[in-house]
């Protein structure tokens, strides 16, 4: 390692420049990016499951087509992100192995069950809304391939968020039962959505260094606050409430005060003990194993073509 290379890296990052795959970077910067991008990719792929659960039971052809498109988008996001991780030297098969053996994490939010069709709307509105809040600043993250992947991901996430909100608006114009379903779903997803932003800043081991490297552009608590402020007027327009008696506008701060999410619950879920962790990983493992023959066939075909090209 040379001090000149290190100085050049630091200068690029602090001038809001981009680090590209062939540039020198500290080992820990590379490791942090692989960790975050892999977790992000895994989240997109595991995130297909809770909603995939409703594809065959969507109430109309229109809702089914929208949901199918959305779940396919998530697969695409996972692929861009695995490709971004590959530019850092990570191997996709290895990342998948780490996911299904529980050695790498994915977002806590996807370990909660989807009990009603209203959950499809609430996931779009709140979960994808939280994802956008977190990911729009990542379009300016210091690592080029990650930043560029985020641009397209964010455009598609905005569509996901709108479809969720539109679905909920439709339900709110429906029967009392439908309105109750929406409120019940919001009550279940609100706190887990706030937990998506991670532990509070004073117990987030990675934030300080990731901020200095401009991998993260805002802290966990800053983004959580932004999400609350953004969601409150949307809830009012929709006609639902959030299950937080401490939630109120603070005139002095120009932001909302809100209660503390149950971070002990977040840690339990992250450690593998949420309501659906075992089921999600088991499903992913089965899908991976069922795909064995496809990978084998693709590799055999590629080898045959390569041999033919040579001969
Ligand atoms: N779910 C699972 N794990 C979490 C969560 C969460 N909601 N929040 C934090 N963690 C993990 C971190 O990954 C970290 O674990 P590790 O050090 O073993 O890797 C640990 O808890 C401590 O947290 P932080 O120090 O705050 O970690 P970090 O700086 O990485 O911040 C964050 C966490 C905000 C999630 C960040 O990694 C990030 O912005 N990631 C990109 C976005 C993303 O992954 N979104 C996925 C969900 S959205 C979607 O797919 C629709």
From TrEMBL:
Keyword Cell cycle: no
Origin superkingdom: Bacteria
Record EC number: 1.14.13.149
Gene3D superfamilies for the chain: 1.20.1260.10
GO MF terms held by the record: phenylacetyl-CoA 1,2-epoxidase activity
Keyword Transport among record annotations: no
Pfam families reported in the protein's UniProt record: PaaA_PaaC
One Gene Ontology term from the biological process aspect of the record: phenylacetate catabolic process
Top-rank EC class of the record's enzyme: oxidoreductase
UniProt KW keywords: Oxidoreductase
GO CC aspect terms: cytosol
Protein name (database record): Ring-1,2-phenylacetyl-CoA epoxidase subunit PaaA
Source organism (scientific name): Crossiella cryophila
